[in-house]
Amino acid sequence: MGSNQALFECTKCGDCCKGYGGTYLTESDIIQIAAFVDVDIVEFKRRYCVLSGNRPVLAQQANGYCIFFDQHCSIHVVKPRMCRQWPFIQSLMVDIANWHIMAGVCPGMNNQMDDQHLLAAIRREMNK
Ligand code: SF4
Ligand code: SF4
């Protein structure tokens, strides 16, 4: 992938829906996804979440994929904020090295730019 190509273009490989320590859920994520799958909040947490520390994250299937992954994201229209934002997450502003780490597991991320251009391009994306 050349530096003049897109900063990010999802290949829909599904790799980001597997492993990586969990998908955090905001209160608003929980309300929306619970309504989408038609269960109340208590039941949603019981069936679809596990705790990471004291924060709920989406549970995983035995194969390591997110509980909502089945060839593709089965809750795409209400997927969690963390999934919607990927790969433009705040920690990139703290340390651009995170882009390269993430790009190592996400083939859709352009990992060919130098850090100065990368940071400027990411800032533009995040300010859209
Ligand atoms: S790992 Fe990257 S390219 Fe693959 S589905 Fe996830 S966001 Fe898209
Ligand atoms: S909610 Fe959807 S996009 Fe997010 S990890 Fe699960 S299957 Fe992937």
Cα distance spanning the termini: 23 Å
Bound molecules: iron/sulfur cluster
**Structural class, from helix and strand content?**
alpha+beta
Largest sheet: 2 strands, antiparallel
| Tally of helical segments | 6
* Oligomeric composition of the shown chains: single chain
Mean pLDDT: 91
The sequence of SSEs as H and E is HHEEEEHHHH
The radius of gyration over CA amounts to 16 Å
Q: Kindly state the percentage of residues in helix.
A: 25-40%
> How are the strands ordered across the major sheet?
1-2
How large a portion of the residues is in β-strands, by DSSP E? 5-15%
Low-confidence stretches are none
Q: Estimate the global geometry from the Cα principal axes.
A: elongated
Number of strand elements: 4
Write the layout of secondary structure elements.
Blueprint: H1 27-37, H2 41-48, E1 49-52, E2 55-58, E3 69-70, E4 72-73, H3 81-85, H4 91-94, H5 97-103, H6 115-126
Helix pairs in contact: 1-2
